[in-house]
Amino acid sequence: MANLKELRNRISSVASTQKITRAMQMVAASKLRKAQDAVESTRPYSDKLFQVVGNLSSEMEGDDNAPKLLVGNGKSQRYLFVIATSERGLCGGFNSSITRLASQKARELINVGKEVEFICVGKKGKASLSSEFGDKIIDFFDFSEVRNLSFVQGDQIAQKIITLFEEDKFDICHLYFSKFESVLTQIPTEQVIIPCNLQVDDNEDSPLQEACYEYEPGEVEILSDLLPKNLSIQVFSALLENFASEQGARMTAMDNATRNADEMIDKLTITYNRSRQATITSELIEIISGAEAL
Predict the structure, then answer these.
(1) I want to staple 195 with a disulfide (CB 3.0 to 4.6 A). Which of 72, 100, 205, 229 is the partner?
(2) Strands 78-84 and 115-121
(3) Measured on CA atoms in the order 227, 203, 175, 123, is the torsion positive or negative?
(4) What long-range pairs does 36-43 form, CB within 8 A, spacing at least 24?
(5) DSSP 3-state assignment of 32?
(6) Total-model pTM
(7) What's the pLDDT tens digit per position in 95-122?
């Protein structure tokens, strides 16, 4: 039978861990409410800007003067992957699902002779990718000291991407993040942000509808100003989606950990009681046997 003192210590240790996981679950739930509000308030603006830029881009189809951010540079040899993950762990498979999606795509491109480089946003993504693609990580953004995400962080990443594109460091840029659906559902997402993947959808329910407008100044001037802003807002929106997904994943993971701790405490308590009963029974047998011998 297991030592009674060891079992008591084990039960106490699991109970202490359970308190931590329950507290982390409550903190994640509190952060999730704020993050979900931020996502829901940003989506209309992001969708509307997407619609405006999409309508403008439809007017420039086939135009040789179209901005490069919209149509690209005509090449597809070098790829830049921007990977958004969390700064901290204990959130289940949240980070691994994003890096797995990006890694799979990167391997496919490398196998056909393409070049792939990475910008990592968040420590966990960098740590996960370093073993296989360490020499291909060209930049890293650490927002662990930022208490509340703002447009500043999204714009900072977007400006870095634009600078690299203007310096002809890559041809196509993919953004990887987790789209928030619910506490239980977060969807790893791949989005092409350069060239802008804008297509007018004929579906009436689509946020992108083609309309007839007269522009002043011309489409080129407006797009030259709007496209960098659109890139910044798309990156910022992805960061918000990612943060909400992280809190949802952490809340679920900590809830599961708390439930598992409950089950483990129950099993250890049963084992402890059985061991204690066996010890008492053994001592009673020894006492009775000694009395009979006298």
Answers:
(1) 72
(2) parallel
(3) positive
(4) 36/180, 36/244, 38/149, 38/240, 38/243, 38/244, 39/180, 39/237, 39/240, 39/241, 39/244, 42/233, 42/236, 42/237, 42/240, 43/237
(5) helix
(6) 0.85
(7) 999 999 999 999 999 999 999 999 999 9
How many Cα atoms sit within 13 Å of 133 on the Cβ side? 27
- pLDDT of the residue at 200: 46
Structure tokens at 84: 């958004």
Q: Give CA separation, 39 vs 34, 137, 233, in Å.
A: 9, 28, 12
Whether 38 and 244 have beta carbons less than 8 Å apart is answered as yes
Catalytic residue (choose from 91, 120, 173, 196)? 91
Both tokens assigned to 118: 């990475």
**What pairing do the DSSP bridges indicate for beta strands 186-194 and 172-180?**
antiparallel
Domains and CATH numbers, the chain: 42-252 (3.40.1380.10)
- Identify the DSSP state of 136: G
Sign of CA dihedral 129, 130, 133, 134: positive
CA distance 40 to 244: 10
Residue 203 CB burial class (10 angstroms; 0-12, 13-18, ≥19) = exposed
Q: Determine contact, residues 193/227, Cβ cutoff 8 Å.
A: no
Write a three-state SS string for 15-58. HHHHHHHHHHHHHHHHHHHHHHHHHHHHHHHHHHHHHHHHHHHH
Strand extents, DSSP E, 183-250: 186-194
Q: Annotated catalytic, 91?
A: yes
- Quote the tokens at residue 161: 């991407």
What does the block give as tokens for 46?
A: 């992001």
Check if the beta carbon of residue 95 is closer than 8 Å to that of residue 89: yes
